[in-house]
Design goal:
By secondary structure, the protein is of the alpha/beta class. Helix content is 59%, strand content 12%. Strand 4, helix 7 and strand 5 form a beta-alpha-beta unit. Helix 1 packs across helix 3 and helix 5 crosses helix 6.
């Protein structure tokens, strides 16, 4: 069974076509796969849809429909949501101390990587899927299997 951790930059590609959507959809079509997101991703997806409305690339009605589609996927168990715990904040701090002087690692991305690392230790992920080069670089430096759906295969 394939196990994949998605951050919001990659997960958004499932709900609105953009560069890399085909690779994200291919992961979602795999039989017997486990798709994991952090509770933070569940919040960030609302921000993604709202941002696209502000940019004029999505109507408010379409954003509401995509939001409902996403929430239905969570409720139906298509996506497994992992809670963010205190130890994830401590790990995010470590990541920022270790990598923040080299990479422009943002706070919430460090928290996403902390959750992904924890899940990987427990379940051995096939990939952390992120469409953010810094997340992929820091994840790889931490020994995580990473894939950027926007990068050539």
């Amino acid at each position: 069974m394939g196990r994949y951790f998605f951050d919001s930059s990659a997960l958004a590609k499932l709900y609105q076509p953009e560069a890399g959507s085909d690779r994200v959809e291919a992961i979602f079509r795999q039989p017997q796969r486990r798709l994991i997101i952090s509770r933070l991703t569940a919040v960030e997806m609302h921000s993604v849809f709202a941002g696209r409305v502000r940019m004029g690339t999505l109507s408010p009605a379409d954003a509401a429909a995509l939001r409902n589609h996403f929430l239905n996927d969570v409720v139906a168990g298509v996506l497994t949501v992992v809670a963010v715990a205190d130890h994830h904040y401590e790990e995010a701090e470590r990541l920022l101390k270790q990598h923040g002087n080299i990479f422009r690692l943002r706070t919430l991305d460090a928290l996403q990587l902390a959750v992904a690392s924890d899940v990987h230790r427990r379940e051995s992920l096939d990939a952390v899927v992120a469409a953010d080069n810094v997340v992929c670089q820091v994840g790889a430096a931490e020994g995580l299997p990473v894939t950027n759906p926007e990068s050539p295969s």
